[in-house]
TrEMBL record, chain A:
The chain crosses the membrane at residues 12-30, 98-118, 130-160, 180-203, 243-270, 290-314. It comes from Sabulicella glaciei. Keywords: Cell membrane, Membrane, Transmembrane, Transmembrane helix, Transport. Residues 94-311 form the ABC transmembrane type-1 domain. This is ABC transporter permease.
UniProtKB/TrEMBL annotation, chain B:
It is found in: Periplasm. It comes from the Bacteria. Residues 1-21 form the signal peptide. The keyword Transport applies. This is ABC transporter substrate-binding protein. The lineage of its organism: Bacteria, Pseudomonadati, Pseudomonadota, Alphaproteobacteria, Acetobacterales. Belongs to the bacterial solute-binding protein 5 family. Its main location: periplasm. It comes from Sabulicella glaciei. Keywords: Signal, Transport. InterPro entries: Peptide/Ni-bd (IPR030678), SBP_5 (IPR039424), SBP_5_dom (IPR000914). Gene3D superfamilies: Dipeptide-binding Protein, Domain 1 (3.90.76.10), Dipeptide-binding Protein, Domain 3 (3.10.105.10), Periplasmic binding protein-like II (3.40.190.10). Residues 65-444 form the Solute-binding protein family domain.
Length: 326, 527
């Protein structure tokens, strides 16, 4: 078990290295931070002083190695745009993104699974047809359009929910949460739905097809033959067996939700990491972009590791296989 | 019974409180990057800080100069200006405002890490004469020093020293400076809280010296809450749903809707920002063209042909939806030196454009690449698309290379361009700023030709710019007029239009429209 974790961690290292290299190489194309920082008025001498100050006059590999050396120590420097430590900026924005992502995931699971079960059980009811049509919208409409439609209906027409921002937040140590205030909860609804809708439809369709698959199996027929009530058959036997792939997919999708919250955060001006990243791209704020991409890579690597470990725990074949030394 | 009385009293207090508190919730697409008054010279920073900080000289609703922290100023010698300071002014944290603070602030703006060099470039030093008198000594006579000083905010010397902020932020430092998120000004509003990219709250400073002049500073806003909202659609939605009271940059396509909505209105006005096409007139061969061995753009006939091929009225009508002021000159009328007779365009005439090209030796036209930003000016990419199509129609086959502002400015600042579109604002509101930055021969001196990426160089123009720098009165105005005429005849740029800036707000808000796109809440009323 221990050697398994260590070997996975060692495999993660080159992944992180490659990600950092690729992201750093990309920055050559996002533009010149110097031009942005100097504004409208400067002299050539000031420009060159700033280039030297930022180390942009050094060769690419020297810049990359400096960046890497600092990154290993958790030192990402000062944001060019905001003149504040990058690590602090990201730590400040992380709670907003994580809360949003978790709520989106919870909505997707809490609504997606029952809808999937229902459509799997009653394939021909009109409600199932409605759910399926609805899920088509979730899959096919781009996120920003869904967000704007929700804003139009629930903020502009009905005036029920705020169209942007995070509402009032409560600070619990370094964590800021919007879950404890009424305005924070109200502000969370639309962005969480927008972000979770795609995953919701994905989970619903997954559960539906898995249910249909499982309901055809012999042990379900056998359970029915034994005269077990429908409820026990559907939820005790069928649903339980569909959940293994669902949990795997949901876990992997959580990483995607965190990483791709960018669009939702931009539409709702949600003060999370995705919005920070987009604004940093606009200002060619390389330290923030680099740190963000590294962090997202780290999130994916660790989620994959956890999923691997779950497999290891769930699937006995994996353990036996390794135990025999194959 | 007592309990009931208490409730009634509490309710009355609540009502009174509600009548007193007048909040403006204000949104724009961009957030100020810093609260340091000398660090970044960009509009988003200034729009916030000018509520909090005062300069020696203020600006009125028409952007004319008026006394600020200085009551009067005189040029006692050609290179020495004397400022008499307002007495009894206090900073928000209680320090007295004195001549020492002025000397400190000017010195701070002169630091190499300051972005405000252009406003203090001629200053040699500032000297305190007594507690309420300051002399500013310039290296050479500077007739427009007061215009420049209207952009230099005054900080407290003791506060800055206490917080280790005597220089603007240095990017190499690992530590965040106190001034990035804290302020201590003398202005009409105090910074109460600041969460970058989320919320900035200003509250009224009842001790501000300007409230005494109630006829002028008639605002009744007690609290300003600024919320940046980057997405255009969301910003408009927030205004329509009543979550925001005032939007500085509504998208043009939503203006009609905002005009027709019951509770919102649109305030329109010109901005001091002029869009034009500039081009490489100096290389022997263009970097991005199929013409070999010569540079078509160094020929004034070709420049005129490109000028006359542009149907500016079509751009005004269609691309800008009427939200532009078509121009034939370098800056709008708010800028000192503007001459209406020189604000005349070469007429739109495709046949004439083709004839000029043929005359210059390009009967079949040529190929060229137009560099353009796509997120800096209002509808910038669409304007360039229209121009590219118009040029192609007269035979100059134009490839459009549009990109976000970060790579765009990086590219043109390397002189890596043949022809490009630029928009130019004039914070000093004086002609010299535009001529010096855009048209002077680049010589390494502060300001001269730093934005002249076509490297236009004309001895006559340089001589006129030199006269603007040193002469005063009528002689100086004459130099500006001659330079404007030369600009029209020699076509170093193809002028397009001045931007209009619509502000959208709830109907119960009234505020004067400012041509520098910087609202002043001291003049804002909420009903």
């Amino acid at each position: 078990m221990f050697s398994f974790i260590v070997s996975r961690l060692l495999q993660a290292l080159p992944v992180m290295l490659v990600v950092s290299f690729i992201s750093f190489a990309m920055f050559a194309y996002v533009g010149d931070p110097v031009a942005i920082m100097l504004g409208q008025d400067f002299t050539e001498a000031q420009r060159q002083a700033l280039v030297r100050e930022l180390g942009l006059d050094k060769p690419f590999f020297v810049q990359f190695m400096t960046f890497l050396g600092n990154a290993i120590q958790g030192e990402f420097g000062l944001s060019y745009r905001l003149s504040r430590p990058v690590a602090e900026l990201i730590a400040e924005r992380a709670p907003a993104t994580l809360e949003l992502a978790l709520c989106a995931a919870v909505i997707a699971m809490a609504v997606g699974v029952p809808m999937g079960v229902y459509t799997g059980l009653y394939r021909n009811s009109w409600l199932s047809r409605f759910f399926l049509t609805f899920s088509l919208i979730g899959v096919s409409l781009p996120t920003f359009l869904i967000g704007i439609l929700l804003i139009l209906v629930f903020s502009v027409w009905l005036g029920w929910l705020p169209s942007f921002g995070r509402g009032d937040v409560v600070r619990l140590g370094w964590w800021s949460t919007g879950l404890l205030t009424w305005s924070g909860l109200k502000a969370l609804i639309l962005p969480a739905i927008t972000l979770g809708l795609f995953q919701l439809t994905l989970i619903m369709r997954l559960v539906r097809s898995e249910m249909m698959e499982v309901l055809r199996t012999d042990y379900i027929k056998f359970a029915r033959a034994r005269g077990l009530p429908n409820r026990a058959v559907h939820f005790g036997h069928a649903l339980k067996n569909t959940l293994v792939p669902v949990i795997t997919i949901a876990g992997l999708q959580l990483g995607a939700i965190i990483a791709f919250a960018i669009v939702t955060e931009t539409v709702f001006q949600w003060p999370g990491m995705g919005l920070l990243f987009i604004q940093s791209v606009g200002a060619a704020d390389i330290p923030v972009m680099a740190a963000y991409l590294m962090m997202i890579a780290a999130v994916f690597v660790s989620i994959n590791l956890i999923v691997d470990l779950l497999y290891y725990a769930v699937d006995p074949r994996l353990r036996i296989g390794r135990g025999r030394g194959h | 019974m007592i309990r009931r009385l208490f409730l009634v009293a509490a309710a009355m207090l609540a009502v009174a409180g509600a009548a007193e508190a007048r909040t403006v919730r204000w949104a724009a697409s961009g957030d100020p990057n810093t609260m340091d008054p000398h660090s970044q010279n960009v509009g988003t920073v200034t729009m916030m800080l000018q509520q909090v900080y005062d300069a020696l000289i203020g600006r009125n609703r028409q952007l004319g100069l008026e006394p600020g922290l200085a009551l009067s100023w005189t040029q006692v010698e050609p290179t020495r200006w004397r400022f008499v300071l307002r007495q009894g002014v206090k900073f928000h944290e209680g320090e007295d405002f004195t001549a020492e603070d002025v000397v400190f602030s000017i010195t701070r703006a002169l630091q190499p890490t300051s972005n405000f060099g252009i406003f203090v470039d001629t200053i040699d030093r500032a000297e305190a004469v007594d507690r309420h008198t300051v002399d500013i000594v310039t290296k050479s006579p500077d007739p427009i020093l007061p215009n420049k000083l209207a952009s230099v905010f005054m900080m407290s010397k003791s506060w800055s020293e206490r917080h280790n902020a005597t220089r603007p932020q240095n990017t190499r430092q690992r530590e965040e400076m106190h001034t990035v998120r804290s302020t201590n000004g003398t202005g009409a509003y105090r910074l109460q809280s600041r969460e970058p990219d989320v919320r900035t709250v200003l509250v009224r400073n009842n001790d501000w010296w300007g409230w005494a002049d109630a006829a002028n500073n008639n605002g009744n806003v007690t609290e300003v809450v600024f919320r940046p909202i980057a997405s255009d659609a969301t910003r408009v939605a927030a205004l329509l749903s009543g979550e925001i009271d005032f939007v500085m940059d509504p998208p043009l396509q939503d203006l009609n809707r905002l005009r027709q909505a019951a509770n919102t209105r649109v305030l329109e006005g010109p901005e001091v920002r002029t869009l034009f096409i500039a081009m490489d007139t100096s290389r022997d061969e263009l970097l991005y063209s199929d013409v070999r061995g010569r540079n078509p753009l160094s020929d004034v006939r070709v420049r005129r042909a490109l000028y006359q091929a542009i149907d500016i009225q079509a751009i005004h009508r269609t691309t800008m939806r009427g939200q532009s002021v078509v121009t034939g000159t370098l800056f709008p009328e708010q800028v000192n030196g503007y001459v209406r007779e020189e604000d005349v365009r070469l007429p739109y005439d495709q046949a004439r454009a083709r004839a000029l090209l043929a005359e210059a030796g390009y009967p079949n036209g040529f190929e060229i690449t137009l560099d353009c930003s796509n997120n800096r000016y209002i509808n910038d990419e669409q304007i360039c698309q229209a121009i590219a199509a118009m040029w192609t129609r007269v035979g100059v086959r134009t490839r459009l290379n549009s990109m976000p502002l970060a790579p765009f400015f990086a590219k043109i600042q390397r002189d890596d361009t043949s022809i490009y579109m630029l928009g130019w604002g004039v914070p000093t509101l004086d002609a010299l700023y535009s001529f010096q930055s855009l048209l002077a021969t680049r010589n390494g001196a502060q300001g001269d030709g730093i934005w002249n990426y076509g490297r236009y160089s004309n001895g006559q123009m340089d001589a006129l710019i030199q006269r603007m720098k040193t002469e005063t009165g009528d002689a100086r105005q004459a130099a500006i007029r001659d330079a404007l005429r030369l600009y029209r005849e020699d076509v170093p740029h193809i002028p397009l239009h001045h931007q209009m800036i619509p502000w959208a707000m709830r109907s119960n808000i009234s505020t004067p429209h400012m041509a520098n796109n910087q609202p002043f809440f001291r003049w804002t009323t909420v009903n």
